Amino acid sequence: MSKESTSKTEEQLQVGGVNALKLAANYGTPLIAYDVGAIKQQIQSFREAFIRAGIKYRIVYASKAFSSLAMYRLLANEGVGCDVVSGGELYAALRGGISPAMIEFHGNNKTPAELAEAISQGIGCIVVDNFYEIELLEKICEAQQRTVKVSLRVAPGIEAETHQYIATGQSNSKFGFDLDSGQAEQALKQLLHSKYLQVIGVHCHIGSQIFAIAGFQMAAAKMIDVLQRWQEKYAFEAQILNLGGGFGIKYITADQPLKPAEFVSAIITTVQQEAQKKHLQLPEIWIEPGRSLVGEAGTTLYTVGSTKTVPGICNFVAVDGGMGDNIRPALYGAQYSAYLAKNLQEKATQVATIVGKYCESGDVLVKQQKLPAVQAGDVLAITSTGAYGYSMASNYNRNGRPPVVFCESGHDKLVLKRETYADMLSLEVD
Ligand SMILES: Cc1ncc(COP(=O)(O)O)c(C=O)c1O
Ligand SMILES: N[C@@H](CCCC[NH3+])C(=O)O
Q1: 309: part of which helix (H) or strand (E)?
Q2: How confident is the model over 231-273, as pLDDT tens digits?
Q3: From the alpha carbon of 127, which atom of ligand 1 is closest?
Q4: Which CATH code for domain 6-34+297-425?
Q5: FRET label pair with 337: which of 141, 315, 318, 412, CA 20 to 30 Å apart?
Q6: Domain locations along the chain
Q7: Does the active-site annotation cover 82?
Q8: Cβ-Cβ contacts under 8 Å for 172 (sequence gap 6 or more)
């Protein structure tokens, strides 16, 4: 359990200083509660690492981890930018008050309409992913008679130690221009000749939920090397080196991730040393954390319903949510920890598998965890659900998506309403 986002000092679970039982009673369950102070603390800790190193930087939050108007407003107030990967995220980010100049647009198949909208809104940077997109951008800019800043997404040929579905740095990734085969260089040449596309830098992102620092350092060293070569060969002076996100967080006790500042400090050291060796003027360093800003800050509260014991085999505890609000266990075999909100000190008396209410046997939130005796009506909390939970939620089985509350200094505020039956029918054509 994250110390920052939930408090264990009290007997009953607190989120951002608000009692979890009170939240469950006021808003119903399932409910996702964020500790806003914990998000701000993570941002600050990234910031301090850069400030200590004395280099120019930008923190760009990866919206896909959790996006809501309240979240974008928080980022805007903190002076943090964001990356978007769809027209929908772009629309929400702008509505949430993020200045267009602070937005980056990612994706391996951005549509012409999405790109046209981004350009007309004066987006800060488009991270160009493939040759088709270069052509599209040229046409759109010509039609709008505007120029746009772009950076070049490179697949640096690095296999990150993570689940294969969320590794993105290897040469056979669907994202970005492969570095080792020379495709990235070919793309750069094209961009340098463009009338409308102003290439401001390069980008790489090797994957997500990564604990090992070595992959980040290898990627950083490779990027510095390529910048130095491209500077010599093409007089290309990158203003920005974007090293992506991917910093792993703690879901279960066995997870021992570095702190954000430790990740960033180690990467910065590599970047500085490599740049010095190669006599390269260090560009501004951008990072794109998603999970590490919001993951541990989020806790999902559920109410226990049925329980089932198969003698000698297993104990099931069923809750009122499941794979609709958290697809990660089913999709990646992701592990989480559950707590009995009314008494964190109560002794475990059983090993239970916490399942959801969806019509799928794979709808398992936590497998085989020690748990106190629970009964119908108890509130169970699953921690570290702040990233890729709500943002990947569905209304499968016509269960509505849960509401989201922001909690800070003992106060709670509803930021996303529960999806109602009527909401779920709102797109139907009768
Ligand atoms: C391009 C890009 N940047 C940033 C992120 C954020 O990653 P994370 O949430 O692991 O920090 C992702 C997601 O993996 C991504 O694809
Ligand atoms: N959705 C993934 C991470 C996002 C990957 C985006 N490139 C997860 O829950 O871990």
Answers
A1: strand 298-310
A2: 999 999 999 999 999 999 999 999 999 998 899 999 999 999 9
A3: 1
A4: 2.40.37.10
A5: 412
A6: 6-34+297-425, 55-292
A7: no
A8: none
| Residue 215 to residue 161: CA distance in whole angstroms | 8
Q: What is the pTM of this model?
A: 0.96
* Cβ 244 under 6 angstroms from ligand 1: yes
Mutation choice for ligand 1 from 205, 206, 331, CB with most ligand atoms inside 8 A: 205
pLDDT at 3 over 50: no
Which parts of 140-253 are beta strand (E)?
Answer: 148-155, 177-178, 197-203, 240-242
* Pocket of ligand 2 contains residue 263 by CB under 6 Å: no
The pLDDT of residue 170? 82
Q: Six-digit token pair at 182? A: 């020379």
In the CATH hierarchy, which fold is given to the domain comprising 55-292? TIM Barrel (3.20.20)
- Give the pair of three-digit tokens for residue 241: 């080196």
Predicted complex: ipTM over 0.95: yes
Mutate which of 63, 104, 208, 294 for ligand 2? The one with the most ligand atoms within 8 Å of its CB, which is: 208
For 25-73, the pLDDT digits (tens) are 999 999 999 999 999 999 999 999 999 999 999 999 999 999 999 999 9
Specify binding-site residues for substrate: 291, 328, 332, 360, 388
